[in-house]
Amino acid sequence: MSEDGDGPPGDLFTSIDGVRDDDSDSEPLLTPEDRPRGILSPTDRDYLCGLKEYAQPQTDANRRQDIRERVINGLKDFVLLSLFLDPDERAKVFEELGSDETDDVLAAMIAFAYLGVDGDRPRLERCIGHGVLQGANVNRLFQSGGRATNADVSISVEYDPDVEKLSRRLENGKELTDAEIGALVRAGNIGAEDIEELAESPRDFPGVFAGRGSEPRD
Fold first, then answer.
1. Kindly report the CA angle at 88 between 85 and 89, in degrees rounded to 5?
2. What DSSP string describes 29-73?
3. 25, 66, 84, 120: most buried by Cβ count inside 10 Å?
4. How many helices and strands in the chain, by DSSP H and E?
5. Contact at 8 Å (CB) between 217 and 203?
6. pLDDT digits 0-9 by tens, 34-72
7. Contact 159, 148 (CB under 8 A)
8. What confidence tens digit (pLDDT) does each residue in 115-156 have?
9. Helix, strand, or coil (residue 109)
10. What are phi and psi of 32, to 5 degrees?
11. 56-83 in b/e burial notation, b at 16+ Cβ within 10 A?
12. d(CA 169, CA 186)
């Protein structure tokens, strides 16, 4: 398969624009910027963004394999880049990116890593900590003193409640905690009259119990 940005010849390639219903929900999530290849070729980017598709399953599988292999080898190259790229050249990379884009691409790298370890936060903490230590000591490999020995990394992820699901549970008489009721209030799914009704209701008001540690009632 060709490694450049050209698609395969003949009827193996077709633009999604030629097969998509204009009223469908299959619009591409992102239009990639026109730039030279990096880990991905321009064709890879178009494929991932949904701008290109292949008529033959094997051609589609080949494209996915090419992307997978390029990503694997690109990630392995960061070992060499972190250790051996000249500091001046490294500085130029981030200067050319600029502060905002640097933050964006670093966040994307961490997101990719988080997905790659299937959300295993302790594992990701260890990896980030190891990387920070490696970076802190990269110019101290042959020095006996003054080396970094510990990096404290802690990741905590909080999720917004599923308000629609909580509303259905309340409507169906299911028990909700104070925190879940609070989420419904903040979302506007429970109004002032509802709050008063809950506050004035007897203790066995259906669907509500006070506090996450309270015992559910019949």
1. 50
2. S--------SSS-HHHHHHHTTSEEESSHHHHHHHHHHHHHHHHH
3. 66
4. 8, 2
5. yes
6. 899 999 999 999 999 999 999 999 999 999 999 999 999
7. no
8. 999 999 999 999 999 999 999 998 776 566 678 889 999 999
9. helix
10. -65, 145
11. eeebeeebeebbeebeeeeeeeeeeeee
12. 17
pLDDT tens for 160-171 read 788 888 888 878
Q: Which residue, 129, 122, 131, is CA-closest to 83?
A: 131
pLDDT for the residue numbered 114: 96
- pLDDT at residue 213 greater than cutoff 70: no
CB atoms within 10 A of CB 170: 21
Q: CB neighbours of 73 closer than 8 A, spacing ≥ 6? A: none
Taking the whole predicted model, whether its pTM rises above 0.70 is answered as no
